[in-house]
Every structure is written in structure tokens, then in C-alpha cells.
């Protein structure tokens, strides 16, 4: 008698043999190799997305490329772009303006954020509700915040001027927060602080919640006052978190663009022109691609170097 073989049986045997072959090959790899096998495509994609534009920008920084005169041949100019940037007095003024903005805004955010964290940490009645309300500004996009505060600062229809007039007696239309040289720098500091002080509060609150209760209980047994506990326990144990908040906010504020561009566009004149706005104008208004690429490289090296030095200092504080 002839045996009848089901047509699917052969396919099942082939599939089973293939699975056994794959299983043997996989079992021959170490756990580390298998992990790299899964991670490698993602790592390769991220490297391609990040390293290729950086390498291309470094290449362009040594050329005279100007997209408004793309008919000119591309010429290698060496370090001329870097020399022009480092000897440009106007650019040094923009860097000074950026540094003043970063220092002022970060200092206010740390003070206000730490104070709010101390308040929320008391866990008073309905503290969860007020925590949510305080966090609302940081949930908004910078574009929304910029347009929102631009309307608030309008001398004719904005409520901010009328509030100042109510408190000081100054006519509402007699000053403009975004249009006066003396007020415009503080305007961008005020808005940035309003938006990002809650972020600092979250980091500080995490630091306060990490302090064990028994330390404060032991201090109370020793009859230490609340002020003494703050200076001897609370502040020293939250310093690493404060330094971390300073690091994050300083990096973000150094590259601040969208909110300032919407509020003042770098004006009046160039009073609030941060270095990021200078970079945007060089790249997308004057189309000096080679020059702007060199400026971007200088800013990247500056932030990267300063952040590395700061992180080393932060690690020393943590090891104490």
C-alpha cells in the first residue's frame, strides 16, 4: 500500500528544521551579543541622524558657502569664519546679553522654585491641587507662552500695564515692557521665570522628599530650631538637586530662541538679541551658511565644555 502523505506535513518539517537552525545559532551567541543584535539598528539610526549633520556642519564651517549666492563656486577658507566670529565685537556683545539673561533667569528660577518646593513639601490641605496649578505654565509650548505674554504686555489692551498702573499710579500707556531698552531684558527674564520655575520646583521637591524623616526627627530631639534644620540638613542635602536644576536650565536658556523671538524679536534695537537669534539671522536671513555653521560649532563647544566642567563639580558635591 502506498502511504498518503499530507501536503502540509513536508512544509511543517521544513519550518521545524529552520526554527531549530535559528535556535542553535541564537543559543551560540552570548547574552551581550543578543542584546547588541537588538540594539544595533536603533544605535545606527541615531548615529546617522546625529553624527552626519554634525560632520556636514563642520565641513561647511570651513567654506565660504552663501546660499544667496549659490552660483559662486564653493571655496575652502580654512579658519577664516572662526577668526571673523572671534574678532566680531557685536557678537561678543550678543554673548554678554545671553550670559546676563541666563544668569538672571536661572537665579530667579532657582530661588522661586526652591521656595515653592519648600511650601509644597509641607503637604498642607489641597496641596495636590495647587501643585497642578503651579505646573501649568511648563506644560505650555514656548510659542503659546510668547504669544500669550505679548498680548498681556500690550500698552493699550494688555492687563499687565493696567495692573502696574493700579499699583504705582503710572499711566498704562506711558511705558511698554517689550518696547523700552530698560524693560525689555527684564521682560524675557520674567516670562522665562514664570514658565520654568515650576520645573525647578519639581527637581527641588524630589530632593526634599529624598531626605529621610529620621534625620529631622533626631534634630527635633536635639531641640534644633527650624532655621537650624534648614541650614544644617535641608539645604546641604538638596544642593545636588539645585545644581542639577541649574545645569538643565542654563543649557536650555543658553539656546533659548522661540519665546524671545516671539516676545521682542531681539529688540528694541538689539537689546534682547541673544546669540541664538544672531545665529538664526546669519543662517536664514543673510544665508551665510559657512559663517553660521562655524558659529554653531563654537556655541556647541562652549556649552559642551562648560557642562563637562560643571558636571565634574556636581560629582564632587555628591561624593561629600
Structure overview:
- This protein is an all-alpha fold.
- The model has no long low-confidence stretch (mean pLDDT 87).
- The termini are far apart.
- Helix 4 packs across helix 8 and helix 12 packs antiparallel against helix 13.
- The radius of gyration is 29 Å and the shape is globular.
- It is 73% helix and 0% strand.
List key phrases describing it.
globular; mainly alpha
Order of helices and strands: HHHHHHHHHHHHH
- DSSP helix fraction: over 70%
Tell me the fraction of residues in β-strands, as a range: under 5%
Count of DSSP-assigned helices: 13
Task: Describe the sheet with the most strands.
Answer: none
Radius of gyration: 29 Å
* Structural class by sheet pairing and helices: mainly alpha
User: Which spans of ≥5 residues are poorly predicted at pLDDT below 50?
Assistant: none
**Ends: how far apart?**
87 Å
Number of strands: 0
CA-based shape: globular
Mean pLDDT: 87
Amino acid at each position: 500500500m502506498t502511504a498518503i502523505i499530507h501536503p502540509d506535513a513536508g512544509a511543517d518539517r521544513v519550518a521545524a528544521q529552520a526554527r531549530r537552525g535559528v535556535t542553535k545559532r541564537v543559543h551560540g551567541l552570548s547574552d551581550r551579543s543578543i542584546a547588541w543584535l537588538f540594539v544595533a539598528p536603533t544605535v545606527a539610526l541615531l548615529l546617522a541622524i546625529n553624527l552626519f549633520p554634525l560632520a556636514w556642519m563642520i565641513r561647511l564651517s570651513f567654506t565660504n558657502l552663501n546660499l544667496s549666492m549659490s552660483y559662486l563656486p564653493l571655496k575652502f577658507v580654512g579658519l577664516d569664519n572662526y577668526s571673523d566670529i572671534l574678532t566680531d565685537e557685536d557678537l561678543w556683545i550678543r554673548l554678554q546679553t545671553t550670559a546676563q539673561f541666563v544668569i538672571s533667569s536661572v537665579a530667579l528660577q532657582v530661588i522661586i522654585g526652591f521656595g515653592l518646593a519648600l511650601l509644597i513639601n509641607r503637604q498642607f490641605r489641597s496641596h495636590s491641587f495647587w501643585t497642578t496649578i503651579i505646573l501649568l505654565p511648563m506644560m505650555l509650548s514656548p510659542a503659546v507662552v510668547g504669544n500669550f505674554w505679548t498680548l498681556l504686555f500690550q500698552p493699550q489692551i494688555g492687563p499687565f500695564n493696567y495692573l502696574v498702573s493700579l499699583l504705582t499710579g503710572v499711566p498704562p500707556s506711558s511705558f511698554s515692557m517689550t518696547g523700552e531698552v530698560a524693560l525689555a531684558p527684564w521682560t524675557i527674564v520674567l516670562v522665562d521665570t514664570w514658565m520654568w520655575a515650576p520645573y525647578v520646583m519639581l527637581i527641588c521637591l524630589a530632593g526634599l522628599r529624598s531626605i529621610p524623616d529620621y534625620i529631622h526627627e533626631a534634630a527635633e530631639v536635639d531641640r534644633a530650631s527650624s532655621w537650624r534644620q534648614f541650614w544644617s540638613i535641608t539645604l546641604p542635602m538638596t544642593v545636588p538637586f539645585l545644581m542639577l536644576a541649574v545645569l538643565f536650565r542654563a543649557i536650555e536658556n543658553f539656546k533659548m530662541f522661540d519665546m524671545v523671538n516671539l516676545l521682542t524679536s531681539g529688540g528694541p534695537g538689539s537689546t534682547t538679541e541673544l546669540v541664538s537669534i544672531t545665529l538664526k539671522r546669519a543662517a536664514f536671513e543673510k544665508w551665510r551658511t559657512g559663517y553660521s555653521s562655524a558659529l554653531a560649532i563654537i556655541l556647541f563647544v562652549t556649552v559642551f565644555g562648560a557642562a563637562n566642567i560643571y558636571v565634574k563639580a556636581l560629582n564632587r558635591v555628591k561624593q561629600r
